[in-house]
Design goal:
- This protein is of the alpha+beta class.
- The protein is 33% helix and 29% strand.
- It has four helices and six strands.
Length: 126
């Protein structure tokens, strides 16, 4: 009797980017009237029609773009994991590298970013 080879049923581990995308989906899509789409080839989460979180790559660094509180922006820029977004001329947001994400902090940043672009009815639904 010839033994059959077992198929390798192990799932391939997610890349860091895919794992972050999955976490972002869970957080962002739980907010009122949000959707996921693509913006300039990147995964983007929108509140209505306006993007508030983008999973991006800039100069070879995978990152998450969010709008941030202006009072917090300068402090975050002192952390090497944050950097100014090159496509944000009004300097209202930042990019956060995918290295060692503190998800409690990231949820707070995402919520602020959502509130920055959401309509009054969306904020009321929160």
């Amino acid at each position: 009797m010839i033994a059959k080879k077992k198929k390798n049923t192990k799932k391939k581990p997610l890349s860091r980017r895919d794992a972050v995308a999955a976490r972002l989906r869970k957080i962002c899509l739980a907010l009122p009237e949000t959707s996921e789409g693509v913006s300039f080839g990147n995964i983007a989460f929108r509140a209505g029609k306006r993007p508030f979180v983008v999973l991006d790559t800039y100069k070879g660094v995978d990152c998450v773009f969010v709008y941030v509180d202006p009072g917090l922006r300068e402090n975050l820029l002192n952390d090497k994991r944050f950097f100014a977004a090159p496509y944000d001329p009004k300097e209202k947001g930042l990019c956060r590298s995918l290295v060692a994400i503190d998800w409690r902090q990231m949820k707070g940043l995402i919520l602020y970013s959502y509130r920055s672009v959401a309509l009054a009815r969306m904020l009321k639904a929160l």
